[in-house]
C-alpha cells in the first residue's frame, strides 16, 4: 500500500510514523510554510483542567493525553528520546477560592474515570510558589500531577525521523492532488508526479488551497498565535509545572532554563506572519501579571503560528464520500499538540482500512462545508 501524507506538522508526522511502522510505503510532502502551528505551539498536554465541556472534544483530548506515554516508549525503541516531553504537572491558579473549588470538583470527576489525571490537591500560595517560584504571592492553586508538556518541534522531528527509519521518503514543496474517476491517484510536488493508493491530508490551516480544486470549500482558517520564550539564566526550570490562570493565557517551562508564555488567539488574522506591538504587549502583560518573578527573564524569541480552526470546537477526521482514497485530519485548533499524535494514529488506521477504537462520526470532515461539488 503506497500512501502520501501531505503536511508534516504534528498530525502529518504522527500519521506518517504510524503508517511506516505498519509497513506501508509512505511519502511525506511538506512545504514547511512560515507559521506552521506545530513549530509555535506551547506544548501543554492537560485536558483535565480544560473548560471545554463537549464530550466528543474530550474523547480526543483525553485519548491524546493518555496516548503520549505509549508513543514516547515506541519512539524510544526507534532511537528517538529527545522530545521535550515531561510529566511535570499543572497548577490551575486563582485568588478566588470558589473558582478553584469548581475546578477541583471537575478534575476530581475526570480523575474518577481516568487514572492518568494523577493526584489532585489544593495548594496554598506559598506551596504553589515552591513549585513555581516566579508566581505572584496571592495565587492559590489546584495541583494536578498528570499534566504534561512537550516540545512540538522536537516531537515532530522525532516522528518524521522515526517514519524515515521505517522507510518513509520525504519531499519539500507544495503538493497538489491528482484525481481520476472520483478517486485520488497521487500528488504532484515540484512538477513530479507521485502515484499513491491513498492520500492523508494533514495540511493544517493551508488545507483549503489543497481541497478547493476538488470542489470542497473547507471551513478551516488560520488563527494567529504569538508566543514568547523567556530565558532565565541559571534557573533549573526542568520540573516546573504548567501554570494555568483563569484566562486563555498560560506559562510552560522546559529543560533549558526556558519559560514559554502565551499566547494570543487572533481569529481572522489570515496568514499575516508578524509580531505585533499589541500582541507582544498582551502576552507579556498577562505573563508578568501572573508571575512577576519572570520580569528579569531575557526575551529570547517570539514565535508565530497559525492554529487551524474550524467552525466549531471539534476536529475534522475521516474520509470524504465524494473522492475515494482521501483521509482528512485537521482543525485541531488550540489543542493539536495534545490530540495530534493520537489523531495521527487514527488517520493511519483509516488509511490502512483498519477498525478504529472510537466512533468518529462527530468529526465528519464535511459537516461544516459551505460547498461540496
Ligand atoms: P501544522 O502544524 O500547521 O502543519 C501543517 C503542515 O502542512 C505545515 O508544515 C504546512 O507547510 C504543510 N502544508 C500545508 N499545505 C501543504 C501543501 N499543499 N503541500 C505541502 N505541505 C503543505 N496545542 C496544544 O495541545 N497545547 C498547546 O499548548 C498549544 N499551544 C499552542 C500555541 C500556539 C501559539 C499555537 C499557534 C498553537 C498551539 N497549539 C497547542 C495548537 C497546535 O500547535 C496545533 O493545533 C497543531 O500544531 C496543528 O498541527 P497540524 O499538523 O494540523 O498543522
UniProtKB/TrEMBL annotation:
Its cofactor is:
FAD
> Which N-terminal residues, if any, form the signal peptide?
none
Q: Which domain of life is it from?
A: Bacteria
Q: Where is the FAD dependent oxidoreductase domain?
A: 2-350
Query: A Pfam family matched by this chain, by name?
Result: DAO
InterPro entries per UniProt: FAD-dep_OxRdtase (IPR006076), FAD/NAD-bd_sf (IPR036188)
**GO MF annotations for this entry?**
oxidoreductase activity
Q: Which cellular component appears as one GO term in the record?
A: cytoplasm
Arranged from A to Z, the UniProt key words for this protein are: Flavoprotein, Oxidoreductase
Q: Which family does it belong to?
A: Belongs to the DadA oxidoreductase family.
Q: What's the protein name?
A: Oxidoreductase
